[in-house]
Amino acid sequence: MPSPTSTSPVKILHYQLFVDGKWVDAQSGKTFTTPNPSTGRSLATIAEGDAVDIDKAVRAARRAYEGVWRNVSARDRGRMLNKLAQLIERDAQRLAELETADNGKPIRESSYIDLPQVVETFEYFAGWATKIEGETIPMPGAMFNYTLREPVGVCGQIIPWNFPLLMCAWKLAPALAAGNTCVLKPAEQTPVTAMELAKLIQEAGIPDGVVNIVTGYGETAGAALASHPGVDKVAFTGSTEVGKLIAHAAANNLTKVSLELGGKAPNIIFSDADLDQAVEGAMMGIYFNQGQVCCAGSRLFVAESVRDTFLDRFRARTQSLKVGDPVLPETQMGPQVSEEQLNRIKEYVAIGQREGATVLTGGKPSRLSGALEGGYFFQPTILANVQNKMRVAQEEIFGPVTAVISFRNEDDLIRQANDTIYGLSAGIWTRDLGRAHRFARAVHAGTVWINTYNMIHPASPFGGYKQSGYGRELGKHALDLYTQIKSVWVDLSDKPIGWFAA
Q1: Number of C-alpha atoms within 13 angstroms, CB side, residue 214?
Q2: Which residues are known to be catalytic?
Q3: How far apart are CA 328 and CA 244, in angstroms?
Q4: pTM greater than 0.85 (yes/no)
Q5: Could you give the CA distance from residue 409 to residue 431 in angstroms, rounded to a whole number?
Q6: Looking at 362-453, which runs of residues are DSSP E strands?
Q7: Rounded distance between C-alpha atoms, residue 424 and residue 327, angstroms
Q8: Do the beta carbons of residue 345 and residue 364 sit within 8 Å?
Q9: Is the CB of residue 428 less than 8 Å from the CB of residue 451?
Q10: φ and ψ at 387, to 5 degrees?
Q11: How far apart are CA 94 and CA 85, in angstroms?
C-alpha cells in the first residue's frame, strides 16, 4: 500500500472486528470513520462494536482461556511473544507511517520512539513467561505449604489514543506472558494500528480467541467491557474522569482493576541547574507528542533568581520548533489528535488568560496551508505568571501548553508541587545531588526524573499516586496485575491431625 502521508491521496482503509481469530462486522452493522488529524479527511472506516460484540469477544476469550491457551507452555508463550516482536520489527516502517497518519505524531517519534519501544516491550515480557514462579513457605511440623502464581483469566483492556500501538504492547505483553486471554478496546480516535497488530498476532501463531480486538466508542463498547461479569480483570489507561467510571462499572462484579490515569507533573528548575540542559528537558517534557502525554511536565516551576534567563531561552527554543506535516522527518510537532482536543486546548488558554496568566508565546491554532489547512494544529505555548491554584495549573490540558510558576524557597516549592490531585511523575533539574534525592523522596509521584525527562523502559515500573491511578505497568511489577496467588497445603505426616483425630 502507498505510504499514508497527509499530502498525497490515500485509499480509505477498512477494518472489521477481530473476534475469536476471525474478522467480522459489528452485529449492528454500524461503522464509524477516523480522520487523519493532519488534514481532517477520512483515513479509515471502522466497525462500531457495542455490548453484543463485547459479549461475543469475552466468551471467545473465556473458551480460549479454559481450552487451548491453558495447554500452551510458558516456554511456547514466550516464543510466540518473541515471534510477534520480530514481526512488528519487520513491519515497523509501515506501522510507524500508519501511527502518524492516525494519531498525528511526527514520523520521527513513531519511527524512533514508539515502534522500537513496542518491539522491546514484547521482547521483555516474552522473557518473563518462563520466570513467573511460586514459592515454598516454611511451616511447623509435617506441613508443606507452597504457592502457585496463576493467571487472572480473561482481561478487559481499554487503551488511549496518545500512544496507540505502544499502549497495546503495555497491556497485551504482560497479560499474555502470564497466561491470560484478552479483549482489547482501542480508542475510537486511533484504532488503525491495533487492527494491524491483530494480523500480526495471527501470523505469530497465537491461538484464536486469545486476543480479541473490538473497536467502538467508550460509552458503549468500553462501558460494556468494564461491566461484563465474564471479565476477571480490567486495565484502563486514560483520563482520571473516565477511570472513575471504569472503577465504578467494575465494582458491581468486584472485578480487579488497574488504572493509569492523568497527571499534572511538576518539572522543577532549581537555580543551580544547567539551564541549557533544563530548557531541553522542559521542551521534551511538554512538547513531545504534542503535549498529549499523561506524564507531561505541564507545571514548570522555575527558581525566581533564574526565571528571566530561563524563560528567554525557553521561549526562543519554543519559537524555533517546526510545526507541520508529521510525515516529514524535519517536523518536530504535528497536529493534535482531533478537533475536539484542539478546541479543548484553545479553551484552556482562554481560561488561563481570564485568570491572569500571560501568553509568552503561542496560544493559538497554527494555520497551515494546502492539504494541511484542515488539520488540528496548535502552536507550542508558554503561559507565564501562573499561580498554582489556577485551573491551567490544576487541570490536565493534554496539549502543548506549559504553565510557568516561579518559587523562592524549597519549603514553598514542595508544598506547591504536591498541591494537586495527581501524582504520576515529576522532574528535577539541579547539580546538587543531595537536593535531587531529597526532592525525589518528598514529591508525591510514581516516577521522578532527575536531570532528564520522559525516560521510560519496559523493565522499569510506571504508574501513579493519588488520582493518577493505582497499579504499576511495565517491569516485573506489571505481572502483579495479571497474576493471582494460590496457597497449597499438604499434610506429610502419617497420622491424621485436627480436632477430631482419634
Answers
A1: 33
A2: 260, 294
A3: 39
A4: yes
A5: 16
A6: 381-384, 401-407, 422-423, 425-429, 447-450
A7: 31
A8: no
A9: yes
A10: -100, 145
A11: 15
327 and 421 share a domain?
A: yes
- Region of 280 (left: φ > 0; alpha: ψ -120 to 50; beta: rest) is alpha
- Give Cα 364 to chain centroid, integer Å: 27
pLDDT in tens, 154-209: 999 999 999 999 999 999 999 999 999 999 999 999 999 999 999 999 999 999 99
Distance of alpha carbon 194 from alpha carbon 101, whole angstroms: 13
Q: Output phi, psi for 498, to 5 deg.
A: 120, 175
User: Among 10, 4, 18, 21, which Cα is nearest to 47's?
Assistant: 18
Burial class (CB in 10 A: 0-12, 13-18, 19+), 361: middle
Its domain, for residue 143, covers 17-37+48-261+468-486
Are 176 and 30 in contact by the 8 Å Cβ rule? The answer is no
pLDDT tens sequence across 278-337: 999 999 999 999 999 999 999 999 999 999 999 999 999 999 999 999 999 999 999 999
**Which residue in this structure is represented by grid cell 505426616?**
493
- The per-residue pLDDT for 496 is 66
Q: Report the SS3 class of residue 334.
A: coil
> Do both 115 and 174 map to the same domain?
yes
Tell me what the pLDDT averaged over the chain comes to: 95
Cell numbers found for residue 392: 491551567
What's the CATH code of the domain at 295?
3.40.309.10
At residue 298, the pLDDT reads 98
pLDDT, tens digit (0-9, with 9 covering 90-100), for 434-488:
999 999 999 999 999 999 999 999 999 999 999 999 999 999 999 999 999 999 9
Based on the domain organization, do 104 and 227 belong to the same domain? yes
Radius of gyration of the chain (CA): 24
Question: Which amino acid is located at 304 in the chain?
Answer: E
Tell me if 380 sits within 8 A of 361, measured CB to CB. yes
Contacts for 389 with CB less than 8 Å, ≥ 6 apart: none
Confidence class for position 495, pLDDT limits 50, 70, 90: confident
Q: What does DSSP say about strands 181-185 and 154-158: parallel, antiparallel, or unpaired?
A: parallel
CATH of residue 221: 3.40.605.10
The C-alpha cell that represents 45 in the structure block: 472506516
Give one word for 269, left, alpha or beta, with left for phi > 0 and alpha for psi -120 to 50.
beta
C-alpha cell at 200: 500480526
Torsion of CA 316, 319, 325, 326, to 10 degrees: 50
φ/ψ of 195, rounded to 5, equals: -70, -35
Examine the domain organization and report whether 275 and 246 are in the same domain.
no
For 157-166, write each residue's pLDDT tens digit: 999 999 999 9
